[in-house]
């Protein structure tokens, strides 16, 4: 066989193999297991939904709510951040989105919290109608392995409850770790218990024995302006006063308030006053 033909055939085979590898790499989609930083991941999440169903969503009124933690069905701190990122992305692309305050008002009045509620398409569609929306974007998130949060979202048609589009991404949790827990809120029951406890400490109960009345020096009745004798921390006075609280004379040395005292040249006894 001609050596030149063998050489040509070898190069031809190498060329064809290289072309196949290039075409094959172009045909393989980007790996879905890629993990993003939170901001970058949310852009990827929303752009994926928009690119898939832009024609269906463009002229629709969209409501974004009910994105919760998958196991508990509760809204953790990260929930509002995810919803805000989705709202901002759709608004920036020219979509019509229901105002957050309107959504919160309706949810507080109508929705009873529960895991099934958030992920049942029929329920989501029902509350979407109350909001005046045509499409609802909802979803859930779960911890996925070490330091990864997987976020799943779906676009649900309000008219028939069908899922129009869905997307999911993985994000690193190192920057959002503090948000991956349920926000601490004051429980009304705990507030009432605290209030009742404070009342118990300040107000005597019906069965509580009455506190004894202040004691006055023996042989004297309480007079206007009189000072009861202090038992625990006695206070001292430097004057002797009459029953009307008028100072009659200074004392040679301070005595406990209310202690009987005498003034030279004055008939009767008085009491020690400030």
Keywords for this entry:
6-stranded mixed β-sheet
Protein described:
With 274 residues, the chain is α/β, with parallel strands linked by helices. Among the domains are: 30-179, 3-Layer(aba) Sandwich (Rossmann fold); 236-273, no CATH class. 37% of the residues lie in helices and 23% in strands. It is built from 7 helices and 10 strands. It has helices at residues 3-27, 38-57, 77-92, 100-110, 115-119, 121-130, 188-202; strands at 35-36, 61-69, 96-97, 135-143, 148-157, 163-172, 236-241, 247-256, 260-261, 270-273. The model is unreliable at 25-32 (pLDDT under 50).
SSE map:
Layout: H1 3-27, E1 35-36, H2 38-57, E2 61-69, H3 77-92, E3 96-97, H4 100-110, H5 115-119, H6 121-130, E4 135-143, E5 148-157, E6 163-172, H7 188-202, E7 236-241, E8 247-256, E9 260-261, E10 270-273
Parallel strand pairs: 1-6, 2-3, 2-4
Antiparallel strand pairs: 4-5, 5-6, 7-8, 7-10, 9-10
Helix pairs in contact: 2-3
């Amino acid at each position: 066989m001609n050596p030149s033909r063998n050489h040509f055939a070898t190069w031809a085979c190498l060329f064809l193999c290289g072309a196949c590898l290039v075409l094959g790499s172009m045909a393989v989609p980007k790996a879905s297991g890629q993990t993003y930083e939170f901001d970058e991941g949310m852009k990827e999440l929303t752009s994926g939904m928009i690119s898939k169903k832009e024609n269906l969503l463009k002229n629709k009124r969209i409501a974004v709510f009910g994105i919760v933690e998958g196991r508990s069905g509760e809204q953790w701190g990260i929930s509002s951040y995810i919803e805000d990122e989705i709202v901002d992305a759709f608004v920036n692309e020219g979509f019509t989105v229901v105002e957050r305050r309107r959504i919160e008002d309706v949810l507080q009045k109508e929705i009873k919290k529960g895991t099934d509620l958030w992920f049942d398409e029929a329920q989501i569609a029902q509350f979407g109608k109350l909001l005046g929306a045509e499409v609802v974007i909802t979803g859930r998130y779960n911890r996925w392995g070490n330091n990864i949060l997987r976020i799943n979202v779906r676009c649900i048609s309000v008219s028939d409850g069908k899922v129009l589009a869905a997307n999911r991404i993985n994000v690193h949790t190192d920057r959002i770790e503090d948000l991956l827990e349920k926000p601490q809120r004051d429980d009304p029951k705990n507030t009432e218990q605290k209030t009742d406890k404070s009342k118990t400490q300040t107000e005597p109960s019906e069965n509580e024995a009455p506190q004894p009345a202040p004691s006055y020096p023996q042989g004297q009745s309480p007079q206007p302006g009189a000072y009861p004798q202090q038992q625990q921390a006695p206070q001292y006075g430097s004057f002797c006063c009459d029953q009307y609280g008028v100072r009659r004379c200074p004392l040679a040395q301070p005595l406990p308030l209310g202690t009987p005292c005498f003034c030279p040249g004055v008939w009767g006894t008085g009491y020690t006053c400030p």
